[in-house]
Amino acid sequence: xxxxxCKKNLLKKLAFCVCILTASFSCAHLDVFEKTVAFPKAEWPxxxxxxxxxxxxxxxxxxxxYIVVRHTDAYHFNNLWVNLTSIAPxxxxxxxxxxxxxGNNLKWLxxxxxxxxxxxxxxxxxxxxxxxxxxxxxxxxxxxxxxxQNILNAGIRVEKIAQ
Length: 163
Prior knowledge:
By secondary structure, the chain is mainly beta.
């Protein structure tokens, strides 16, 4: 009898997990692309420019571009300066520099798990339209500390806004 109750509770938990997963796939944003690069020594040199390639097929939609950063609690700064270079189909490279706020003097602004903090910071101030085709983005840190210490991962996320 006791085994039956445990199986019943297990089935309830499984059904709950399935409901949560189903709800999470019906979000307002549709992911198009996300990729991060790991820094094995937790050091991000300013000379490292990693390429992020993705394709756009829906030209009617608008997109948000995010910078994804994971760092340890020992990171020395409250911000991060980055250059994002984009190459659209048939265009020349365009580079934009932004300061990303990671924290204030009291706390980190990202989500944390133990001593690892993750940030998803919107790079563009408003949603943008893309042309159809293949895109290449390059991400580079441009802080004074070189290599930048206590950075675990950095990358790009592009989300299509649901109409």
